[in-house]
Design goal:
Helices cover about 5% and strands about 55% of the residues. By secondary structure, the chain is mainly beta. The chain has three helices and 29 strands. It has helices spanning about 1-20, 360-365, 365-370; strands at about 25, 30-35, 45-50, 60-65, 65-70, 75-85, 90-100, 105-110, 110, 120, 125, 130, 135-140, 145-155, 155-165, 180-190, 200-210, 210-215, 220, 225-230, 235, 245, 250-255, 260-270, 275-285, 290-300, 305-315, 325-340, 350-355. It has a 16-stranded antiparallel beta sheet that branches. Strands 22, 23, 24, 25, 26, 27, 28 and 29 form an eight-stranded antiparallel beta sheet that branches. A three-stranded antiparallel beta sheet has the order 1-2-3, with no helix packed on it. About 20% of the residues are buried. Strand 1 (about 25) and strand 2 (about 30-35) form a beta hairpin. The longest helix has 18 residues, at about 1-20.
């Protein structure tokens, strides 16, 4: 009887000791270690269970409005119709997505609609970055993707790339902080049309979002036709905040008198919180040029206004004659308006417009300026 009681008490002691052990995870090799006591030795016995290095940091949510099909042989989900895949800050939307559970790779592209026309092209967003593309391939583990016919907006610039490589900045296997975008066969422009009317064509562009775009050898392209204006390299600040930087021309024109020209190309300077300045220039192939300084100021609930100074030198070539006529003109325009909330009874405002040699109608071709 005493022997049975001794055996029972020993079993209770061993079970209570096992229940008090807490599994610990070793940070060195990403493994799970569980320790059990050995009744015959003083030192505990440890068993280590390795955790798969291919596992993701969080769950991947995926679904589709039309249908989903699982390929058991390849461990792939096929998603049809407004398909979505979400992982951390990343969202992928397309009409057709194939997601591999083994490789953690998603392939997205459009899908024919009811009349056989391709629709639902991929839309990719990761934090503050967004792309539209014809086709893409993304690895959720390495946070790297290949995007074909991509279009992305960086600040005031639109970048079109035939083949784009996206590298996320929060990769677990490196110390990289910033995102990187590599474009080949790319066009950088300020034109927001689906097929840009003009831009700078470069074989390679590297973009650090919200910081800088770096281009290699490139040339100006107008309506798909390359021009002789060539750049060995270039740096373009891309930021949603107010920073100094280049201003791309928003208009180009051809005149029988002045030739080909670019308008309003210059530099932007944020002077203070309430004031900024733009230095703009017009350049034409036959030697005509113009320069203007535009400054805007504004204080909320108090006042706002602008100062615009301009000078132009237009060289007119007369057909059949050797003489070249030069038309010089300048303009001073100042406006100031007091906000209605600044004072209940008194208000100060007005404008000044001084021009010589019909500066506005000579340099602008819109109906309001000409008439």
């Amino acid at each position: 009887m005493l022997i049975r009681i001794y055996i029972l008490l020993s079993c209770i002691f061993v079970c209570s000791t096992l229940g008090a052990q807490i599994p610990t995870r070793s940070p060195a090799n990403d493994s799970l270690r569980i320790t059990f006591p050995d009744s015959l030795r003083e030192q505990p016995v440890s068993f280590t269970y390795e955790v798969s290095p291919d596992s993701l940091e969080a769950e991947v949510d995926y679904g589709a409005n039309d249908s989903m099909r699982f390929d058991n042989a390849r461990s792939e989900w096929h998603l049809y119709g407004d398909a979505t895949v979400k992982y951390l800050t990343l969202t992928l939307i397309a009409d057709y997505i194939v997601f591999s559970l083994d490789s953690n790779i998603a392939i997205a592209q459009g899908y024919p609609d009811s009349i056989g026309r391709m629709a639902g092209f991929p839309q990719f967003s990761d934090g503050g970055q967004a792309f539209t593309a014809k086709r893409l391939r993304y690895n959720f583990r390495s946070q790297k993707g290949i995007i074909y016919d991509a279009r992305t907006e960086q600040g005031d610039l639109f970048i079109h790339g035939a083949r784009t490589k996206y590298v996320g900045g929060s990769t677990s296997d490196s110390t990289q902080v910033d995102d990187y975008i590599y474009n080949t066969g790319a066009l950088i422009t300020t034109c927001d049309a689906e097929v840009p009317h003009y831009g700078i064509r470069s074989r390679k562009i590297k973009t650090i979002p919200n910081k800088l775009a770096i281009i290699g050898p490139s040339n100006l392209e107008i309506h798909g036709v390359p021009t002789i204006l060539w750049l060995p390299f270039g740096f373009f600040p891309v930021s949603s905040s107010r920073r100094s930087g280049l201003i791309f021309p928003k208009d180009y024109e051809y005149s029988d008198t002045w030739g080909f020209g670019l308008r309003d190309i210059g530099y932007f300077i944020p002077i203070s919180e309430h004031m900024d300045a733009k230095v703009l220039g017009d350049i034409y192939f036959n030697g005509s040029w113009g320069l203007s300084l535009l400054s805007n100021y504004r204080k909320r609930y108090q006042y706002n206004g602008s100062i615009n100074l301009g000078y132009s030198n237009r060289r007119n070539e007369i057909p059949g004659e050797l003489d070249i006529q030069s038309q010089k003109s300048f303009s001073i325009r100042v406006s100031h308006n007091q906000d209605a909330k600044a004072h209940p009874y008194r208000r100060l405002g007005g404008s000044i417009n001084i021009q010589t040699n019909d500066y506005q109608s000579l340099n602008r071709n819109d109906a309001n300026s000409v008439l």
